[in-house]
Specification:
This protein has 225 residues and is an alpha/beta fold. Helices cover 64% and strands 18% of the residues. The protein folds into two domains: 11-89; 98-223, Trna Endonuclease, Chain: A, domain 1 (3-Layer(aba) Sandwich), CATH 3.40.1350. α4 (123-134) packs across α6 (176-193) and α5 packs across α6.
């Protein structure tokens, strides 16, 4: 005959165990030792699991950092390209407006754009610059600087009627490099033609530091919309 055992209620079982432990302090110590031993035996496995989780988390963080760096580089690249495109558009639109704008600021007459993004130097002017290099008036570096100038204007001063050249560097945001290039181009033009030359930077905006640098370098600043 098979005997059926009725499952002991868990709460009743725990109550019985607690009652026995209170009645037997030595059993309390043995039970505590057994529990602690079991905990310590299981710790290495749990630590390995935790370490594996940490390694996985660190790997994911590293991947996220790489994605973030790639995204930042992409954003900077887009910003540079957009800035370059805005600058190119600004330079292309400027030649048609530059003479009226400059004539008001530095009082010019008979002004003529002789070099711009859409206008090349005439053979006459190119030959004169090449002759200046051959004569040792300036070097080939200065010759290249003239050729790289955004806009060159030949004009007369309105009052004195003397010949004057204007070297213009254009940028939507005027930076120190624009000021330096305008100054270098004007100095090269003055040396090549033995006539006065004015350095000008034109843009939509300029910072206070750049304004001071332009004033110190003797470069005219023209801010346009």
């Amino acid at each position: 005959m098979t005997t059926t055992h009725t499952p002991i209620d868990p709460e009743s079982l725990v109550a019985r165990i607690m009652e026995e432990l209170r009645a037997n302090p030595a059993a309390q110590r043995l039970l505590m030792q057994a529990l602690l031993t079991r905990e310590f035996q299981g710790m290495p496995l749990r630590l390995e699991h935790i370490e594996a989780q940490l390694d996985d988390m660190l790997g994911r963080v590293k991947s996220l950092e790489e994605v973030q760096r790639d995204l930042q580089n992409t954003v900077r690249d887009i910003q540079d390209k957009v800035g370059s495109l805005i600058g190119d558009t600004f330079e292309l639109k400027l030649p048609g407006r530059i003479i009226p704008l400059l004539s008001q600021k530095i009082r010019l007459r008979k002004a003529e754009v002789v070099l711009s993004p859409t206008t090349s130097l005439s053979h006459e002017l190119a030959d004169a610059i090449a002759d200046a290099v051959d004569a040792g008036v300036f070097d080939e570096r200065q010759e290249r600087r003239i050729g790289l100038t955004d806009i060159i204007i030949r004009a007369q001063r309105r009052v004195e009627r003397s010949a004057v050249w204007v070297a213009v560097e254009a940028s939507s945001a005027i930076h120190l490099r624009d000021i330096e290039r305008a100054r270098q181009s004007a100095d090269a033009l003055a040396a090549a033609f033995r006539q006065d030359a004015i350095a000008v930077v034109v843009g939509n905006r300029i910072g206070s530091d750049e304004s001071r640098q332009a004033a110190d370098a003797g470069v005219e600043v023209l801010v346009v919309e």
